[in-house]
Design brief:
The complex is a heterodimer of chains A (114) and B (114).
Chain A: E1 4-7, E2 10-14, E3 19-25, E4 30-38, E5 45-51, E6 56-59, E7 62-67, E8 72-77, E9 86-94, E10 102-104, E11 108-113
Parallel strand pairs in A: 2-11
Antiparallel strand pairs in A: 1-3, 3-8, 4-5, 4-9, 6-7, 7-8, 9-10, 9-11
Chain B: E1 5-7, E2 10-13, E3 19-24, E4 31-37, E5 44-50, E6 53-57, E7 65-68, E8 75-79, E9 88-95, E10 104-105, E11 109-113
Parallel strand pairs in B: 2-11
Antiparallel strand pairs in B: 1-3, 3-8, 4-5, 4-9, 5-6, 7-8, 9-10, 9-11
Classes of the chains: A mainly beta (114), B mainly beta (114).
Chain lengths: 114, 114
């Protein structure tokens, strides 16, 4: 069964600090891995998409890494801001049947405090 | 790019009633997806359209659920004879064709069953 596990479940950090969120997956065959940011009461917003051949991708202060051999990904947030408070969801796409075959993690809830 | 629009944002109804939600995707996107999300969980795939054709339905989509995309533009999701367990956020997303295209989500319809 395809699964995506995220850790930690929740995280509290001080404004200005860095943090790293983890994602392990068992989706096969692998197509791509996505990180989404979801503010409370809003829909998810795409941060990065990485294919098998990419091992890092940045979007502003967000940097995602992918190790397809160990089936692990991380999302690093630099110089956190209060507006980074949200849930961060790791999503893995399986190859072969179209982009609708997405497996979502439960998300990491990040709280950035002043 | 005006974004994915969902209506209504909130729906409160009594158990046993029928409800219908609408999703207007980004105009040039030919793919449309419906998801359900409960508190503390990632979105769960319900169904997927390419243009007007419904190509995949999750086993989560019982016979009380039906989705349409009659002209390949907006879509509706209807739930008949609602049950307490149907209470959730219903998210719609759209994308261009291609397995590595990001899905753009609307802000969802929150359904509460009394």
């Amino acid at each position: 069964k395809n699964q995506v596990e995220q850790s930690p479940q929740s995280l509290i950090i001080l404004e200005g600090k860095n943090c790293t969120l983890q994602c392990n997956y068992t989706v096969s065959p692998f197509s791509n891995l996505r990180w989404y940011k979801q503010d409370t009461g809003r829909g998810p917003v795409s941060l990065t998409i990485m294919t098998f051949s990419e091992n890092t991708k940045s979007n502003g202060r967000y940097t995602a890494t992918l190790d397809a051999d160990t089936k692990q990904s991380s999302l690093h947030i630099t110089a956190s801001q209060l507006s980074d408070s949200a849930s961060y969801i790791c999503v893995v796409s399986a190859k072969g049947a179209g982009s609708y075959q997405l497996t979502f993690g439960k998300g990491t809830k990040l709280s950035v405090i002043p | 790019d005006t974004g994915v629009s969902q209506n209504p944002r909130h729906k409160i109804t009594k158990r046993g009633q029928n409800v219908t939600f609408r999703c207007d995707p980004i105009s040039e996107h030919n793919r449309l997806y419906w998801y359900r999300q409960t508190l503390g969980q990632g979105p769960e795939f319900l169904t997927y359209f390419q243009n007007e054709a419904q190509l995949e339905k999750s086993r989560l989509l019982s016979d009380r659920f039906s989705a349409e995309r009659p002209k390949g533009s907006f879509s509706t999701l209807e739930i008949q004879r609602t049950e307490q367990g149907d209470s959730a956020m219903y998210l719609c997303a759209s994308s261009r064709g291609g397995s590595n295209q990001p899905q753009h989500f609307g802000d969802g319809t929150r359904l509460s069953i009394l």
